[in-house]
Amino acid sequence: FLFVPAVEVKIEVVIPEKERSKEEMSPNGKASPLIYKVNGTARHYHLEEHPIASNPYHNPKDVVEASVCHVKDLENGQMREVDLGCGKALLIKESGEFHAVGHKCPHYGAPLVKGVLSKGRVRCPWHGACFNIGTGDIEDFPGLDSLPRFQVKIEKEKVYIRASKQALQTQRRTKMMAKCISLSNHNLSSTNVLIIGAGAAGLVCAETLRQEGFSDRIVMCTMDRHLPYDRPKLSKSMDSHPEQIALRPKEFFCTYDIEVLTEMQVAAVDIKNKIAVFKDGFKMEYNKLLIATGNTPKALSCKGKEVENVFNIRTPEDANRVVKLATSKNVVIVGASFLGMEVAAYLAERAHSVSLVELEEVPFKKFFGERVGRAVMKMFESNRVKFYMQTEVSELREQEGKLKEVVLKSGKVLRADVCVVGVGAVPATGFLKQSGINIDSKGFIVVNKMMQTSIPGVFAAGDAVAFPLALRNNKKVNVPHWQMAHMHGRIAALNMLAHGMEISTVPYLWTAMFGKSIRYAGHGEGFDDVVIQGDLDELKFVAFYTK
């Protein structure tokens, strides 16, 4: 990292390693759709017991111990991937001490040896997740699981690692969690914590509460028909099925008593009486509330917008349907947003033609600036994507009810069998207008550094909030990144439990298109200069956004 006072944002574009193909794999994904609704049966659970003993490996057959190097083989600040025979570990030396943890990031399996080691943490080279080298705990996101930690001992100048074979093979560890000690059958319309929304923010909030020993009732509700899933894959890996991209299997929710009400929409919140009113009339009392409803995609307002085969990609079914309709056909994408560009990249090899319509003169202009935007555009053009810039859609024409042509305001008529709309989104907060919760002029829920709204006991997280960003002098910003939603959920949960924890994370996002990965750290809104190091034409560069 280069520290320059004017610098606010670092972007890195790299040609991915051979391991990059693994990045598109599902992180786990054995789940199937589930409607886990309350059945009225009283259940009594206790905190899951993990006895802390001098030997944490209960089954000797599951344990392997191996000499991995000489003590002088590693300098301070160095990491090395070592093989124990039945699996690998990451050996780290910092401040004269050796540590050993899992060698793969539990998010998408990136090799952590290629990451960055600093101040007792290792950061994933692909998507920026951070792990404590002493405990293996995840401390920055994305991802849900921590790293397994292995015992290290020094004998006769040799370094030995003792590890569980199972941990070496799985390379992930779910932190110890509480279970619910009393799911009352007396009042099913009452919960201690209600979470509206089942994206990354909602799920991390629920998991953090359980990790911190919270053993009362937690209910998540979502308009979706699926359990929480890896939403970024909807545009990056469009033929993924729901069970492949589930963040947790259904058994996980049952084990830790996190109740998920699917296809349930909250229509209003009564702050005074602490009641959420659902669209179907059902009412639920709560003690603490998290609002993590995300955003709603903007629709086209042109003539013919109701024509069949026009999509906002919101669900796995949408993404799957687009791939099916687009194969060997003509695709028009409206909006050179992250979603629009990722969809264009994914469909370029599959479709007969891909056309992209955008109001700006280059893609990503407001976000990456003109020079970077133009370099990305050139890469797309060399992959058969045709751009129609500085224009918009005036009409969608149909034949027998299905899309046939997209007419542009410039007069150009594009053949189209399927159209994907990615022209931005608005926060899904309309149901809060009469609630008394402070919402800004753009519809974002205003929160403080502890993710608390203007109402005590009501928290908000994810894409629908404006929060104070430490690195921009606590300016209230909206950062709709996957990583940030995870952190919001964690901070909200800790403050529901009165930990007094303030958010201080650096925003981070990534996108992958045509085998190239763009990574962006910071918040460059309002930049007036871009300092570029490297080769833009080769897409091997770092860009600093300054003001």
From TrEMBL:
<dbReference type="InterPro" id="IPR036922">
    <property type="entry name" value="Rieske_2Fe-2S_sf"/>
</dbReference>
<dbReference type="InterPro" id="IPR036188">
    <property type="entry name" value="FAD/NAD-bd_sf"/>
</dbReference>
<dbReference type="GO" id="GO:0051537">
    <property type="term" value="F:2 iron, 2 sulfur cluster binding"/>
</dbReference>
<keyword id="KW-0479">Metal-binding</keyword>
<dbReference type="GO" id="GO:0016651">
    <property type="term" value="F:oxidoreductase activity, acting on NAD(P)H"/>
</dbReference>
<dbReference type="InterPro" id="IPR023753">
    <property type="entry name" value="FAD/NAD-binding_dom"/>
</dbReference>
<keyword id="KW-0285">Flavoprotein</keyword>
<dbReference type="InterPro" id="IPR016156">
    <property type="entry name" value="FAD/NAD-linked_Rdtase_dimer_sf"/>
</dbReference>
<dbReference type="Pfam" id="PF00355">
    <property type="entry name" value="Rieske"/>
</dbReference>
<keyword id="KW-0274">FAD</keyword>
<keyword id="KW-0411">Iron-sulfur</keyword>
<dbReference type="GO" id="GO:0005739">
    <property type="term" value="C:mitochondrion"/>
</dbReference>
<keyword id="KW-0001">2Fe-2S</keyword>
<dbReference type="GO" id="GO:0046872">
    <property type="term" value="F:metal ion binding"/>
</dbReference>
<protein>
    <submittedName>
        <fullName>Apoptosis-inducing factor 3</fullName>
    </submittedName>
</protein>
<keyword id="KW-0408">Iron</keyword>
<keyword id="KW-0560">Oxidoreductase</keyword>
<dbReference type="GO" id="GO:0097194">
    <property type="term" value="P:execution phase of apoptosis"/>
</dbReference>
<feature type="domain" description="Rieske">
    <location>
        <begin position="66"/>
        <end position="161"/>
    </location>
</feature>
<comment type="similarity">
    <text>Belongs to the FAD-dependent oxidoreductase family.</text>
</comment>
<dbReference type="InterPro" id="IPR050446">
    <property type="entry name" value="FAD-oxidoreductase/Apoptosis"/>
</dbReference>
<dbReference type="Pfam" id="PF07992">
    <property type="entry name" value="Pyr_redox_2"/>
</dbReference>
<dbReference type="InterPro" id="IPR017941">
    <property type="entry name" value="Rieske_2Fe-2S"/>
</dbReference>
